[in-house]
Amino acid sequence: MRSRILARRRARSFGTSDPAALLAKVKQPPYTFASRQQLIDYATAAVERARAAVPHWFGTVPKATVVVVPYPAFRERSAPGAEYQAGSDDGTRPGTYYINAFEAEKQSRAGVEATAFHETYPGHHLQGAVAKEVGGTHPIQRYFGSSGFGEGWGLYSERLADEMGLYSDDLAKLGLLSNEALRSARLVVDSGMHALGWTRQQAIDYVLAHTTETVAGAEAEIDRYIAVPGQATAYMIGNLKIRQLRDEAKQKLGS
After folding, report:
1. Per-residue model confidence (pLDDT) at position 80
2. Which of 43, 188, 193, 218 is 20 to 30 A removed from 178 (C-alpha atoms)?
3. Using CA atoms, how far apart are residues 203 and 220, in angstroms rounded to an integer?
4. CB-based contacts of 105: which residues, under 8 Å, 6+ apart?
């Protein structure tokens, strides 16, 4: 049922329901950004929308804020699409959501909102800031993370954001699906390179064929997987486990 609904939505909004044609289409104007500033403003608007919605969905909301900052020029070419850095323990420095504005005119708008929710609210910023503010955890738990839990929650929060009504349009919801496809593709390319002898270019081509990543973005992602085997696969594994635990909770707790 979900796949049929998505197919109808793709045909209505983009003139095609073919996944490969759709991914190629949304990598081109008018689905790309006109400027760096437009990308930054678009991501910031998503963060602010999520910030306003979070108190209606969570009983505990962090006091710490988060700021949206583009990567500095010397980092952006090889940096990932985005990342989150936690604020200081005493609250004097806010959390920072770094976004990659490199060649913004080549970047599709599709995945930007989903990534913003992953990195800030209800994703990493909410997760990490609440953990710090609640207190009582051992320093090892506060300063060392498990990718399965940390990134699993970040990926889970992208779909949770859909339940919260945070996505602005069908293009942004397509970005949610593209982001999930990227996390699934990681399971393929990581094992392909580290266990089956895939080349770097084979892995890049696979990501380009199944997601809305740009060439530069795919290259940066694959170089990361080469350097840190197994880390990126934890996103999907953790996400699936959290969803399983939520289903179990729903069965036991009801409404």
Report:
1. 85
2. 193
3. 11
4. 32, 33, 34, 35
Q: Which helix (H) or strand (E) holds 97?
A: strand 95-99
- Tokens encoding 12: 């209505």
Q: Which residues pair with 69 in a beta bridge?
A: 98
Residue showing tokens 């919801």: 173
- Burial class for 10, CB neighbours closer than 10 Å (0-12, 13-18, 19+): buried
8-state DSSP, 120: S
CA angle 127, 94, 36 (to 5 degrees): 95
Edge-first strand listing for the sheet containing 66-70 = 66-70, 95-99, 82-85
Q: For residue 226, count other CB atoms closer than 10 A to its CB.
A: 14
Beta partners for 95?
66
Q: Which two tokens stand for residue 186?
A: 């990681």
CA distance 136 to 129: 13
pTM above 0.70, yes or no: yes
> Where is average pLDDT lowest: 17-21, 61-65, 107-111, 241-245?
17-21
68 vs 36: CA distance, rounded Å:
13
10-50 per-position pLDDT tens digit: 667 788 878 888 888 998 999 999 999 999 999 999 999 99
Residue ranges covered by each domain of the chain: 2-253
In a 3-state reduction of DSSP, which class is residue 98?
strand
Mean pLDDT, rounded, of the chain? 91
